[in-house]
Design brief:
This protein is of the alpha/beta class. 29% of the residues lie in helices and 16% in strands. The protein has 17 helices and 21 strands. The protein has helices at residues 30-35, 37-43, 78-90, 109-116, 174-189, 207-210, 227-230, 236-248, 263-270, 303-320, 335-339, 347-358, 388-399, 404-414, 451-456, 461-473, 478-483; strands spanning 11-14, 47-50, 54-55, 67-71, 94-99, 128-130, 148-150, 156-159, 194-197, 254-257, 278-279, 289-292, 295-298, 365-367, 485-489, 496-502, 506-513, 519-520, 530-533, 542-543, 548-554. α13 packs antiparallel against α14. The radius of gyration is 24 Å and the shape is globular. The structure holds 1-deoxynojirimycin. 1-deoxynojirimycin is lined by residues 60, 63, 100, 162, 198-199, 258, 330-331.
Length: 555
């Protein structure tokens, strides 16, 4: 197995808008991140991923870029970014940026020009169809409306996978691809070590998606879902290879793509000469949702299923390449609320959940606040929603006379705003995030759940994450925990999840009791073999409720 710098990285994901405000506008900024680098270093992470910081109208909090070459004034300046990269480097921390190139913002100069002048070269930077006045076809975008938006009062329509303010870029156009490659090089020269690549599986569309003829519908509204037509279409790899050859490989970058790759394509995506360093796997983070009538809804799932999904994903990834274990990000709710029932949420369940994913094979990702056990926001009603996709879905339901309260219930459990509330630094005003009212409310539990108190207590989620990182980085066991083979352990009780990481030197077992009853372990644990334990007691061959233990055997 080739050793690459990013294989033993620990990534800390930052949602800049909600991390730390320093200029008193209620919005986080780059200076805030600079000020908190010591916190990240102290935790042990050595790579940060910044969600988009480019100029943007912020309709989708930066996933709608209006200028690829400049930092948004809300966050600071290009000089601030350079300073951040430098300050991070001094602490041994690398910086990844978010690359959002499936679409840009409708405020981008390219798009404005394409709208103004149909003959301009920028018109072919987008997917625009002229019709006799009707939408070209019945494709539905992810925001539950038509994927086609009329330009002004013309008969021209542009295609958008996400919201109407996010027109898709036309990757068929080599000139557009060249622009993107140049832009990536620009940031690389500023010291950016790699990219998290947004919605990259969407860049190629099927022929039918763009034709002026109806597509067979798959729901009662007569529209057709995107998935079959805009995800992982044949020919996409040609474009991705260009990025790899022109940028990723040349500069030894870490790349993590947001794309669901079926097993038969994994070799080409993350294999030896793969397109990316790694891709995000949604199989177990989206275990609790299903699509019905074009919308996502909650579904029931079991621990057994969770275990199976994790093992399946690990076995496939290990066969072909490298993984990126994660539980949370800015599109997910807080993980503890997803995987554990309300009455069982606490220190033990949070740390057990942490250990469950943290030692899987791949580069682990931690989302801001996860390391202090942040929880979902207690939403009361729709006024508190900030995520434009949620607001739009709610308003559509109200407009259509549907049960909008059902949507609200979904957002309480699953809404993206849950993880976007301000980082809870201390028990002071606005949780130490800002000295003014933040753009999104602070979770009221900040008085007791904050980084400061977590760092002061010895028995805290924060310290447990710190220990997990130390183990992954330890001179003794780090190699096994990074490069060692993964093997899922068959267990009788569903609540008992176990897996091994092994190389020629050690075999390390990770045991997690993911339930509220004591379970028997299939093997006896020698007291001196225990590397990590989230409880003070260590029964010989049992695990207490939500207990997790790492034990090592020399080979
Ligand atoms: C995925 C991003 O993670 C999400 O936040 C965003 O809304 C969409 N892509 C569109 O860019």
């Amino acid at each position: 197995m080739k050793e690459k710098w990013w294989k033993n990285a620990i990534v800390y994901q930052i949602y800049p808008k909600s991390f730390q405000d320093t200029n008193g506008d209620g919005i986080g900024d780059l200076r805030g991140i600079i000020n908190r680098l010591d916190y990240i270093k102290n935790l042990g992470a050595d790579t940060i991923w910044l969600c988009p910081i480019n100029v943007s109208p912020m309709m989708d909090n930066g996933y709608d870029i209006a200028d690829y070459y400049n930092v948004d004034p809300d966050f600071g300046t290009n000089e601030d970014l350079e300073e951040l990269v430098e300050a991070a480097k001094k602490r041994g921390i690398k910086v990844l940026m978010d690359l959002v190139v499936n679409h840009c913002s409708s405020e981008h100069a390219w798009f404005k020009e394409a709208v103004r002048d149909p003959k301009s070269k920028y018109a072919s930077y987008f997917i625009i169809e002229e019709t006799d006045g009707k939408e070209p076809n019945n494709m539905r975008c992810y925001a539950a409306a038509s994927a086609w938006e009329r330009i002004g009062d013309s008969n021209r329509f542009y295609f958008h996978s996400f919201s109407r303010e996010q027109p898709d870029l036309n990757w068929e156009n080599p000139e557009l691809r060249k622009e993107i490659i140049e832009m990536m090089k620009f940031w690389q020269k500023k010291g950016i070590a790699g990219f998290r690549i947004d919605a990259i599986g969407n860049i190629k569309k099927s022929k039918e998606a763009l034709e002026q003829k109806p597509i067979p519908t798959d729901s009662s509204d007569g529209m057709a879902s995107m998935e079959k037509h805009v995800l992982m279409q044949n020919g996409i790899e040609e474009y991705l290879r260009e990025l790899k050859e022109e940028v990723f490989d040349k500069y030894d970058m870490m790349t993590v793509a947001e794309v669901d790759v079926p097993e038969e394509k994994m070799e080409r995506f993350i294999g030896k000469d793969g397109l990316f360093s790694m891709v995000f796997d949604f199989s177990y983070t989206d275990i609790d949702i299903e699509k019905r009538n074009g919308k996502e809804w909650k579904r029931d799932w079991s621990i057994k299923e969770l275990k199976e999904k994790i093992f399946k994903s690990q076995n496939a990834i290990q066969k072909y390449g490298w993984g990126s274990p994660y539980l949370e990000n800015h599109d997910q709710p807080r993980s503890i609320d997803k995987y554990v029932s309300k009455e069982e949420i606490g220190y033990e369940s949070k740390t057990a959940l942490g250990a469950l994913y943290f030692f899987l094979r791949g580069t682990p990702f931690i989302y801001q606040g996860q390391e202090i056990g942040m929880e979902n926001y207690p939403f009361k009603d729709a006024d508190e929603l900030r995520d434009p996709f949620a607001v739009e879905r709610y308003e559509q339901s109200v407009k259509n006379g549907e049960n909008a309260e059902a949507d609200m219930e979904y957002f309480r459990a699953r809404g993206r705003d849950n993880s976007r509330t301000p980082m809870q630094w201390d028990d002071g005003a606005y949780a130490g995030f800002s000295d003014t009212e933040p753009w999104i409310p602070v979770n009221p539990n900040y008085k007791t759940m904050n980084a400061k108190s977590q760092m002061e207590e010895t028995h805290s989620v924060y310290h447990f994450y710190q220990k997990m990182i130390c183990l992954r980085k330890s001179p003794e066991y780090g190699k096994t925990l990074t490069y060692g083979d993964f093997e899922g352990i068959e267990t009788e009780k569903d609540a008992l999840i176990g897996y091994k990481r092994a190389d020629e030197k050690y075999e390390i077992s990770v045991w997690v009791n993911f339930g509220n009853e004591t379970v028997d372990l299939p093997e006896k644990l020698e007291q001196n073999s225990i590397l990590l334990n989230n409880r003070t007691e260590a029964p010989e061959s049992k695990l207490l409720p939500y207990q997790t233990i790492l034990a090592v055997k020399e080979k």
